[in-house]
Amino acid sequence: MISIITAVHNGLSFNRLYSETLKKYTKSKYELIIVDNNSTDGSKEFFQQSGAVVIANTENFSYPVCQNMGIAKAQGDHLFFLNNDIIVSPSWDERLIETANMHGIDIISGCGIENMGDFYATQKLQRKWKRSKNLLIPLGFGRKNLQLMHKLMYGNWEKFCEQQFEKFQYKVVEGILGNNVMMTRRALKIMGNWDERFQAADFDLFMRTKKRSLEVGDIKPCHISLGVYIHHYIRMTSKYAVKPKPFADKDKLMDIKDKWSAEEMDLLHPDNASLRQKTN
Length: 280
Hints:
With 280 residues, the protein is of the alpha/beta class.
């Protein structure tokens, strides 16, 4: 069994579509752990009725706090930290696990609009998504319109994803996409939980893992699978659909630059130009 951990704060249309595609495309037996941050639009009740394990918070907490709440409940050998505004691809879970096993990787993400492993391919896809979503945003954020945006972007979703897998198979590049992160139990044992001081905890996780890979060598850096594509609506839940409440732990949050110097970032974090040279 795998554990899927997702934090939500409203966004019912996104949540319905997310749940539907998880059920359709996930091959492994899974538990869905929802960290509900005081939703007021029926999202909490929807997930409760669908059989998910729901952690019902009375306040809205930051990204890393929610991930750690989910970890405390998770029973699976592989933990997947997924946003609620994504659409997974067919066999996404099995292929990510297979890719990680093949390369000896303990922390891996699927590729997507934010990073295709190549700067120009990423830029091209981002421009297409901007055109697709901007055309339909005036129609609102209902489930059918979200599906229409997705259809306009990809056409036949299953065909698009299969072509991606056929092209790249099990190739990987260094990096992380915070909207979808898989961690093994071994990674949790070595790296510990998410650092709750940073909303950009995915970036921090990449930096910590890369640093340990260089200094200790008992874990490989985070990687992105180029053969497993996951669609991300990208900030639409906060920017367009629902205005989120302030984080209950906002006073504890720090800027990522307070932990990582510019020199460390240059040393440890590859930019897109480097990424396109590191396909292996």
